[in-house]
Amino acid sequence: MQPIRLLSYNIQAGIHTRQYREYLTKSWQHLFPHRERQLNLGRIAAMLRDYDLVGLQEIDGGSLRSSFIDQIEYLAEEAGFPFWYRQVNRNLGRFAQHGNGVLSRLRLARIRELKLPGLPGRGAVIGELDLSDGSVLGICILHLALGWRARGRQLRHIAQVVNRYPYLVVMGDFNCGCRSRSLRQLLRDSALRGLDCNLKTFPSWQPRRSLDHILVSHSLRIVDTAVLDYPLSDHLPLSMTIALPEGVRVI
What we know:
By secondary structure, the chain is of the alpha+beta class. It is built from 5 helices and 12 strands.
């Protein structure tokens, strides 16, 4: 069995939030550059080195607020990931490039983008890893809407797209807890598992809510799951180690 170390992390474009009032006092950092952001990205890169495949949300693709640094490319170089992909979902030109990102030590055979239903600005990335038995492991990284109606539509759309994968991981910032009806419907529609109400990721300084999830198909074995005490964003990172069936490996 080949263990694969996964991590999902909403990095809030590199902004280090330590308490609720900083959503107001640091709101300008969503528009303008700041020295602390780059220092924070360096700390995040050091943590990412322990993982094989990372899904990031709320990255900046290179704009004024990030000092025109593509945060996915920067983290890939700093943490030593040979494969990376950036998805920009909300393009505000030179002022902000909101999106998702993938970092991988495993060769991504294919990658595709999904624009999710609802107001523009939400998306998902699906990376595909070819396996030795001729099948595919799909890795879906997403960031869902705040509103429950839009989130429900997005989860139904995801279920329709990913059902074809014999091996599947869906991870990211779902913006809903494990008691969400639409999230539980996704588990039923896609035969996914891994939902755990004890894995609280938000807010990072006093985690009370499970907004970030890593869900996997029953064909994959969950070795361990943990929330990391690494409060460099308003979310905490969520990790999971999975194993493929005996005799199956990534090629």
